[in-house]
Predict the 3D structure of the following.
Amino acid sequence: MKVCVLGLGQIGVPTAKYIASKGVEVFGYDIKREAVENAKMQGINASTNLRGVPVSDVYVICVYTGLKDDGSPDFSPIFDVCKEINEKSLSTSSSKTYLVSIESTVVPGLCRKVYEEIFKRHVKLVHVPHRFWADDPVRHGVKQLRVIGAIDNESLREGLNIYNKILSIPLHKVSSIEMAEMSKIAENTNRYIQIAFAEELKMICDKLKMDFNEVQNACNTKWNTEILEARDGIGGHCIPKDARYFLSLSETAMLTKSAMLVDDIYKKWIREKVKSKNYQHS
């Protein structure tokens, strides 16, 4: 079996290395030469030309999905790479139906749109959103409990066979591919809101001259309460972006909008605290 991992960034490289560790022949592809060179340094057979990669049985899409200048979702990397996969398939004489697994974060409906408009329903398609956390790649890396949704039953069977049996990745099956798409952005948006509450609580504690950490520890003794840490504001690649994706689904997502406002206020509050501290020490 041959697997091609498309997108050799923070998620793609560990994914390719993990698949290779299972004795599977792996190839990598990225449009950025520096990403390809980095992958090669880590033992991955990679290229900036997809046509130069052997025809594969499985295509794992790990390209980064971001935001446009206006803050709306930018899924052009997904569409671009799927078009390349399809063109590569059409240019070969192979009649074999391959599996496409989209691990990149998307919104409900995108996988089905790709399946129908680009692949013309001629592939098996699953969505297995990544949960990779670079700070703890052992416990929260490629191999951890993941969600899988599929475009149809045949795709689901193939996806389960690849991820579960061959790659030994535990999976939670959901009823549709849209359900898997929704689960990823919902779980990260939930995390965003939880952090924003901690930030709000910390600002209130500061105003009342109370120790936030002591309040947090006291609250967290309750069995169903977990107030998170409040650090320097919500950052990173995934959580702020995925919250924007969630917000794009409905104008009534007021809680998410409020959480974003709290985070903006908190970041300004932190900057003012640091500025005041530096001024006092000057």
Q: What stands out?
A: The chain has a mean pLDDT of 95.
